[in-house]
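Protein modeling request. Please complete all fields; requests missing the sequence field cannot be processed.
Requester role: graduate student
Desired output: 3D structure, token encoding
Chains: 1
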Amino acid sequence: MNLGVNIDHIATLREARKINEPEPLEAIYVLKNAGVSQITAHLREDRRHMNDFDIERIIQNAPIPTNIESSTNKEILDFLIKLKPNSITLVPENRQEVTTEGGLLLTDRLRDIISKIKDSDIKVSLFINPSKDDITRAKDFGADSIELHTGAFANLFLILNSNLNRTPNKLDIINAKEKYKDELKRLSDSAKFAKSLELGVYAGHGLNYQNVSEILKIKEITELNIGHSIISRAVFCGLFNAVKEMLSLIKG
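Delivered output (252 residues):
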């Protein structure tokens, strides 16, 4: 299983002071040396972390493949297509959200958007909820792969296995134990179904050092994109070591 590391939150830390450190570009060489397969970054419409300058330099200088997450915003997609990352993952965006809250809404307009990206020899992945209907539409629209949104699974895992609900950031979810089992089954069934349609099957959102072992059991998933937990761990042990720890779990 491959690991892509999302470096958005390096830029989040930089933007807390609106200066030029920490530098996201520096991370791509650390990640390459640590053994990751892909650099992931999200160019949001509100530019709350990564900006156009960051993305351009990352794509131009990355020694390993680049995967850029984007909404269906035409201006952003036109900008990315000119830069030619290895892949673009289409994701939903809500200006008020703290982080991506769910999968992409698969409307018919995606068909033309996907075609335009692929005409530029860029692979297209869709960030979707674990749903067979969404997977079927992703295939029909011409996507190369899907990335299953693991946020619901991750939140349920935290409720059941951490002190989250004894903190100010507690989550109000009823029947978490049953919902956790259901969500894992949804992810597993969706991964199997997507593979049967010959789509690439990836996963991401909320994955961390504690819960990743459950996702690793789903053999149809071939790539994980993880950001927040690795960057958080890097605060204490350094980015290289944080990646090595995650890779040891994935490869172990």
